Amino acid sequence: xxxxxxxxxxxxxxxxxxxxxxxxxxxxxxxxxxxxxxxxxxxxxxxxxxxxxxxxxxxxxxxxxxxxxxxxxxxxxxxxxxxxxxxxx
Length: 89
Fold this sequence. Notes:
Blueprint: H1 8-26, E1 37-39, H2 40-47, H3 51-59, E2 66-68, E3 71-75, H4 76-84
Antiparallel strand pairs: 1-3, 2-3
């Protein structure tokens, strides 16, 4: 029968490796990586506007959302163009 003895140092090293692996596996995307499509609430927060103003932007044709399962999604590119004043008509 072969017996191996584990020390506190061995356990600490294992813990460090395990935590590093878990962080890498479960890490969230960085904040700099922006989503291509965002929901209405995020658009309102980004533009600092009310739900009515967002509706007005849709009605006037300045924003063109896509509806998926009852949820409106807006193109991040279109929002950026709106912020920069680069609207395409």
